[in-house]
Amino acid sequence: MFIDTATITVRAGNGGNGSVSFRREKYVPAGGPDGGDGGRGGHVYLQADDQLSNLADFRFRAKYAAQNGGGGGGKNCAGRNGEDITLRVPVGTLVTDAETGRLLADLSGGEPFLLCKGGRGGWGNKHFANAVRQAPQFAKSGLAGEERRVKLEIKLLADVGLIGFPNAGKSTLLSVISAARPKIADYPFTTLSPHLGMVFVDENESFLCADIPGLIEGAAEGAGLGHEFLRHVERCRLFLHVIDTAGTAGRDPCADYDAICAELQAHNPELAEREQLVVANKLDAVSDGTVVDRLRRHVAPRELFVISAATTEGVRELIRRCVQKLAGLPPIRVFAPDPEPELVEAVIETNIQKKDDVWVVTGDWLERMIRDVNFDDAESIAYFESRLQANGVYGELERLGVAERDTVELYGLTFEYVR
After folding, report:
1. Contact 338, 97 (CB under 8 A)
2. Greater confidence, 87 or 139?
C-alpha cells in the first residue's frame, strides 16, 4: 500500500544528572569536589533516503525516543552521551509541526535534519565550588530532551507530471517513455498510487516523469482518488495533460480538459498557470477526424501534440519538446521552512497564592531546582535561598503581605517565613 502521509511523536533523550563526589585519596589533602557532568541526551534526526518510496514504515509505529544521557561519576568522569537515532524518509518529504502547522523542513537533499535536540547534561558539584563554598553537596539534574509531534507528507520530486482523467493513457505513456511498469488496464482507477520513471532522451539529456493517478471532476473536494495525490503535482515543472481523444469512456475531450484545469485551479491557483503541453492520446482509435481540430482550437494558445501511446506514434516528438521546455523552466521547487517564532526573552515565572493561611509558591524553575538541593547540607540550602532571593520570590511574598512566621510551601517543602 502506498502511504504518503504519517503523523509521529518523537522525543529526544534527557540529559544525565551531574554527580556529587569528592577526592578521597590518602595522600591528597583537601582534595575537593570532583563530581562529573551528566551526558547529553540523544538527538533525533530525519534523513532523506532515495531507496524509500513511501512512509509505510511509520504506519504501525508512531512514537520514537532517543536514549537518555548517562549520569556523571566521581573523579571528574562525565556521563556518556545518549545514542542518537535517525529516521529515514523518502526524498521529497515535508516535515510539519502537527500542533502549529509550521513547516520545519523539506527533505529534498542529502543533509540530515535535526528534529529534536537532546537535553543538556547536568553539572557535577565541582562547578559549584568557590572560596566560600568549598565542599558543595549538590549537583544539577539534566535537562529534558525536546519532544515534538510532526506530520510527514511526501510531495514527489519530478520534472514532468502526467495529469488527466483515468484511462486517458497516462500509465501507458509512462511505460513507453521510461522503464517504469505501472499497472495498465481498461477500467477506471487502475493506477492507485503515483509512479515515477526516468526518461532518457540522449546521453546527457534526461528528466524524471510522474504519473499522477485518479484525477476526476471534484477531486479537489475529495472525489475519486485525486484528492489524495494532488499534492504530488505541486513540484512538477511541466505538466503533460493527457486526453482521451477517442472518447472510449463516452466523455468529451474538451470537457475533460476544462474539468482537470478547474481541479488544478481549485487545489492551488498557481498550478493552473503552470506550463502545460496538451497530449491528444489514442490517435489509433480516433474515428472522428474533427475531434483533434476542435480540441486544438479549444486549448489554444497551449501546444497540442497528437500521439498514440499504444503504437508510440508521435511520442518521440513529444519527448523532444519536453526537453526543450524544461531547459527554460526554473528547477524543481524546494519548499523553504517557515521562520521560527520570534524569540522572547525568557521570563522566570513564579506563581504565589495563599490557601488556608499557607503561602503556596510554584514555578517550573522552582520545581527543577528543588530536585537538586541537598537539604541535609547547609551550603546547599544557602545556595537555594540565594536563588529564591535572586529570582524575586522573597520580594513578591513581601509585596503580597506575608507576615513573620507565616507558613510557606514549595512543592511539599514547608518552612516559616523569617525576615
Report:
1. no
2. 87
User: Which of 213-217, 337-341, 382-386, 403-407 shows the lowest mean pLDDT across its residues?
Assistant: 213-217
Task: Return the C-alpha cell found at 388.
Answer: 529564591
- Dmax over CA atoms of the chain, in Å, equals 106
Q: Are 110 and 56 in contact (CB under 8 A)?
A: no
Q: What CATH number has the domain bearing residue 315?
A: 3.40.50.300
| pLDDT band (50, 70, 90) for residue 214 | low
Model confidence over 167-207: pLDDT tens digits? 888 889 999 998 877 655 454 444 556 788 889 988 778 99
* Residue 339 is assigned to a structural domain of this protein: no
| Angle, vertex CA 175, rays to CA 171 and CA 178, nearest 5 | 130
Give domain status of residue 381, yes or no.
Answer: yes
How many whole angstroms separate alpha carbon 50 and alpha carbon 168? 29
Do 299 and 366 reside in the same domain of the chain? no
- Shared domain check, 261 and 294: yes
Q: Do 302 and 167 fall into the same domain?
A: yes
**212: three-class secondary structure by DSSP:** coil
Please give the tally of structural domains in the chain. Answer: 3
The answer to the question of residue 342 being in a domain is no
CB within 8 A of 307, min separation 6: which ones? 173, 279, 280, 281, 283, 313, 314, 315, 318
pLDDT number for residue 240: 95
User: Do 206 and 140 fall into the same domain?
Assistant: no
Can you give the pTM of this predicted structure?
Answer: 0.75
Distance CA 82, CA 39 (A): 7
Same structural domain, 18 and 76: yes
User: Could you tell me the end-to-end alpha-carbon distance of the chain, in angstroms, rounded to an integer?
Assistant: 70
Range of the domain at 56: 1-155
| CA angle in degrees (0–180, nearest 5) for 80-85-86 | 145
Q: Where are the alpha helices (DSSP H) in 186-285?
A: 226-229, 253-267, 269-272
Residue 334 forms part of a structural domain: no
